[in-house]
Amino acid sequence: MQHLSQPVSGPSLQSSPELTSYSTSRDQEDVREAAARGELKELRGAAFFNRTWVFGPRHLEGTLWNDLPFLVTDMTDFWINNCATMAGSQRINFASFLAKLASTGILKGRICHIALILFRNAFEEGRDLRTTEDPDNEDPTRSIKGLDVAHLLPAAFVWIKEAGYNLMQLSESSWNDCPSSVGQGGQLYLQSELGRRSAMGFTPWRWMFWLKRLHEIQEEAKDAKEKRLDDLATEAIDIMIANVKERNSDILRTYQSSGEAVHQDKHLRCLQNLVESKA
Question: Where do the record's region annotations for Disordered lie (predicted)?
């Protein structure tokens, strides 16, 4: 990204639409790649020379991302097209950057489109816990169907840790400002008691389904002696429960009025305990 440290000037360069298009495309690719590597200082530098930041009191050591016209669409496309082929460390770094950005509340929640896609893949599609002991290295031939829960749970955990409160708020308000291809639920969710009540976007029902699936993954990981996955699922559950408790979230009211079929689900009993403790 050294070319970004030298702003281009001069009438002959500015008058060339071909060069402008090439430079913009290259700048965008640099931003995407820096995000995937978790190189936030390099990413800030790219954004400065692309005029995609302004100074402010919040985020990234006093820097507030404000005008990123390509960010949501570009980052969503980058995740869809590259999350399967990334190494595990790249997937986590990229998820961490996106979740931290989402936690600021900028872009009106639209960066959380990527969380919907990730959570659908991780929790709503009936994946095996783990099918291989091979390291999660970069693999340009791997597709999304080749990912197990073990590949996706660490990235989902990062979203819950860094932006779980925001995801809860979007779920409370049944936020669905996204294309149907992004907001649609996976088959496990759609066929569930919770999914039959609301299928698209963020909803209290979908948030509860993710919590339920984390409990199921926790149990499966414990039985398989997958300590890291067990620990990730356990901590994710704890964070989600702490968030709804702190906010006294409307998700609890939705659960309370959800009826016997939902109340009998042992994986959601933790919500019942919260409701009773506040009675």
Answer: 1-33
